[in-house]
Amino acid sequence: xxxxxxxxxxxxxxxxxxxxxxxxxxxxxxxxxxxxxxxxxxxxxxxxxxxxxxxxxxxxxxxxxxxxxxxxxxxxxxxxxxxxxxxxxxxxxxxxxxxxxxxxxxxxxxxxxxxxxxxxxxxxxxxxxxxxxxxxxxxxxxxxxxxxxxxxxxxxxxxxxxxxxxxxxxxxxxxxxxxxxxxxxxxxxxxxxxxxxxxxxxxxxxxxxxxxxxxxxxxxxxxxxxxxxxxxxxxxxxxxxxxxxxxxxxxxxxxxxxxxxxxxxxxxxxxxxxxxxxxxxxxxxxxxxxxxxxxxxxxxxxxxxxxxxxxxxxxxxxxxxxxxxxxxxxxxxxxxxxxxxxxxxxxxxxxxxxxxxxxxxxxxxxxxxxxxxxxxxxxxxxxxxxxxxxxxxxxxxxxxxxxxxxxxxxxxxxxxxxxxxxxxxxxxxxxxxxxxxxxxxxxxxxxxxxxxxxxxxxxx
Length: 460
Ligand SMILES: Cc1cc2nc3c(=O)[nH]c(=O)nc-3n(C[C@H](O)[C@H](O)[C@H](O)COP(=O)(O)OP(=O)(O)OC[C@H]3O[C@@H](n4cnc5c(N)ncnc54)[C@H](O)[C@@H]3O)c2cc1C
Ligand SMILES: NC(=O)c1ccc[n+]([C@@H]2O[C@H](COP(=O)([O-])OP(=O)(O)OC[C@H]3O[C@@H](n4cnc5c(N)ncnc54)[C@H](OP(=O)(O)O)[C@@H]3O)[C@@H](O)[C@H]2O)c1
Description:
Blueprint: E1 4-9, H1 13-24, E2 28-33, H2 41-45, H3 52-55, H4 58-65, E3 70-73, H5 84-90, E4 93-96, E5 102-103, E6 116-118, H6 119-126, E7 143-147, H7 151-161, H8 164-167, H9 174-181, E8 187-191, H10 203-209, E9 215-219, H11 228-235, H12 238-251, E10 260-265, E11 268-274, E12 281-290, E13 293-304, E14 307-310, E15 314-315, E16 333-334, E17 337-340, E18 343-350, H13 353-356, H14 364-379, H15 391-400, H16 408-425, H17 435-442, H18 444-454
Parallel strand pairs: 1-2, 1-4, 2-3, 4-18, 6-14, 7-8, 7-14, 8-10, 9-10
Antiparallel strand pairs: 5-15, 11-12, 12-13, 16-17, 17-18
Helix pairs in contact: 1-14, 7-10, 16-17, 17-18
NADP nicotinamide-adenine-dinucleotide phosphate binds at residues 106, 147-153, 155, 192-194, 198, 200, 205, 270, 311-314, 358-361.
């Protein structure tokens, strides 16, 4: 029997780890499709620019995408450029690893006032995501409130606290660096709706805030007093114990007069974003836990703010042709096999955040993808073979639809162009942030020809 042809949708960690596991099994050819011209999902467009070591996981992901049995097809959106029916005609199995792209909302009045944003948008902006609006953030705000105490909140607070000089050696786009250079931010307040024993950040990430050269970290010792139940939680968990130790160290620290101030506050639940034409404050209600349930005390506090960034988690989006659980924001599945109300959807699988929700670090997606690939390979003999097996037929179909697919050499063109921009700034890479420029870097000859053809004719 001829080898299995699998389409993996999404080139983030889950998709690439799935491609790795599939091709390790032998006699499997994988196309990894992504709606973006560049690969690596949140490794490129989420992991903070100053987390250089973590970002270097792209080296391992690249090795997978460079395997002979793997083909990258960027700038191809499944659901728009190709349907699930198209995929079924060309592939024996389809594995969705499309992540959880959008933000969760607070659901409080004033959330849409100018000056109120999601951390998702802020991260996309500083990461040079092609869907981000480059002039969306001006950082004219003096006081920023970040809602949430997870690792993404820590990332955005740290980026806001750093100077442009500290970030100039990273890959942030030039326009972003200019805005960071002119930033008016003086005060950043992170707000947790529960206490420090319930914060989601991890100790290594938390500790970095205390090492900021440009900001004093401020913690109110009263916020760190633990109830008996919280003390028991902390006693039983090494990360929580370490987090508390770090926070207590800061609570005893006198500010050293650094230009910015980064405060961590707890037991405050947002009830309204205040302002008429723009954000002026976040109104929050003091909270406590009663029998494990978060309850409001009725007492409110207004935290002055010119900008509110909600960092309260990500959410998946429904995919055309696939079932979707709105409540949990994931595709229903059994060990990665997509489940409809009528039973399994033959030959269709999920991995990563679209499978288990927006939690877990990059490495979590490896075992997650391995589970799904195990399921897929166990099903393989029973899967009907796709009628159209010529790999070039997918490219021809995309061309016929006017889709400018970016193959691996195209990505290498983008990579080289970004490294050249980096060399000019004295760093390893500067991101190209808009899609037309990414596509021009991917296909320079085609774009030069188009530009020449549309140039007005010269005199004579
Ligand atoms: C801001 C942020 C920072 C993070 N930092 C770290 C960190 O420092 N360390 C760490 O270990 N973890 C970090 N994580 C967690 C880590 O990024 C995730 O665990 C991981 O990226 C999830 O992998 P995924 O492949 O499921 O999704 P993603 O990485 O989101 O990849 C999904 C891919 O699917 C593509 N896609 C979506 N829809 C379609 C479609 N219709 N057609 C084609 N392609 C599509 C997307 O373009 C994307 O490339 C961070 C997460 C966030 C949000
Ligand atoms: N360096 C790294 O390793 C790194 C960096 C970034 C992200 N990540 C990972 O990526 C995943 C996503 O991170 P994340 O920070 O987006 O999510 P997260 O870890 O789930 O944190 C979300 C935060 O938002 C709060 N929240 C949720 N709804 C709220 C509401 N309505 N009002 C107020 N607060 C609310 C949560 O509080 P409650 O707990 O009370 O719900 C929590 O503090 C995590 O697994 C994270 O570890 C890792």
